[in-house]
Write a structure and sequence with these properties.
313 residues; 18 helices; 72% helix
Length: 313
């Protein structure tokens, strides 16, 4: 079957759209059409197919295409690295990166953030430091996403001095920069540093997102600062335009439960129109056990959890 000259660019644009929208159903339809037209083995179309499947988290299909692709440019590796990292498969993400280095492919600014994320989640500060060196050598230190990823990596690895130094040296910071450093401080229990950064961030009129507020509420919970926690939680939508989510509610339940305010925590949960999860109920039930609130625990069991829940565990 003869293929018209404009056929390849046409399908490339369709696959790019699938990559952006993560439309798996449409992607499969396009792939089937390419097979019918006998052009699915076209090298450039195959790389586009791979990237689109990776963006849709279909890593089995992406891997099959990868091993049958003779042309493996950097963006193909980036697609797989990013897909594994987004699915919290951090070891696999780093494995693809190592494969990329062995294949002598040049990495770019799009490679680094998901690799650094994986380093942070696995506490692989050795590789993280090596990548930091590569960032400096290759002149990527001015890239905001890379700098934010380095701060996050060092923070997750407990290297707060390095994270703070990077933050202080940044010529331009986004709300992600502030949030990454606050998360690092919260992780090692430096709640006072979280509060200082949060106040500075708000004072400067920086955007505050849901992740930042979760970090702040978690720090308030660890320090038992119930009044401050209430203030942030009750005003977050009005002040920052962030509607309270499940993670914020769980922080508040944990905070109130630790303070012995179990009935208030129960009332808060009952009044929120959110789909609850196991972490939230565990936080509330744990507070019931610690403070001997049997009646509250029984109400929770009766209304939400059912007879299968073992309250004695």
């Amino acid at each position: 079957m003869q293929v018209r000259p404009r056929t390849i660019p046409f399908f490339v644009s369709l696959l790019d759209e699938c990559y952006s929208t993560k439309s798996l159903q449409k992607l499969k339809q396009i792939h089937a059409k390419l097979i019918v037209l006998n052009i699915s083995s076209h090298s450039f179309l195959r790389t586009k197919l791979l990237s689109a499947y990776a963006s849709c988290s279909q890593l089995r299909e992406a891997h099959i295409l990868f091993f049958f692709t003779s042309r493996q440019p950097t963006f193909i590796y980036n697609s797989l690295i990013r897909a594994y990292s987004s699915l919290n498969q951090f070891s696999e993400s780093l494995s693809i990166f190592h494969h990329m280095i062995i294949a002598q492919k040049t990495f770019d600014i799009f490679t680094l953030p998901p690799v650094l994320k994986s380093c942070g989640q696995l506490s692989d500060v050795t590789l993280g430091r090596q990548l930091h060196g590569a960032v400096l050598v290759n002149g990527c230190s001015s890239d905001l996403a890379t700098s934010n990823s380095l701060i996050s990596m060092y923070g997750k690895c407990g290297e707060l001095e390095c994270a703070g130094k990077l933050f202080d040296e940044m010529p331009v910071r986004s709300y992600v920069s502030w949030s990454a450093l606050m998360t690092g401080y919260e992780k090692v229990g430096m709640a006072s540093e979280v509060f200082v950064l949060f106040e500075k961030m708000v004072g400067m009129g920086m955007e505050v997102d849901g992740v930042t507020l979760t970090t702040v509420l978690t720090a308030f919970s660890h320090e038992g600062m119930v009044e401050k926690g209430r203030e942030v939680f009750e005003t977050m939508e009005e002040r920052f335009g962030v509607k309270p989510g499940l993670e914020h509610l769980t922080c508040m339940v944990d905070m109130l439960g630790k303070a012995g305010l179990v009935e208030e925590a129960e009332e808060l949960v009952m009044g929120m129109e959110l789909e609850t999860d196991e972490a939230l109920w565990n936080a509330l039930l744990s507070a019931c056990r610690v403070h001997g609130k049997v009646e509250v625990a029984e109400r929770i069991e009766k209304r939400f959890v059912g007879r299968a829940l073992n309250l004695a565990s």
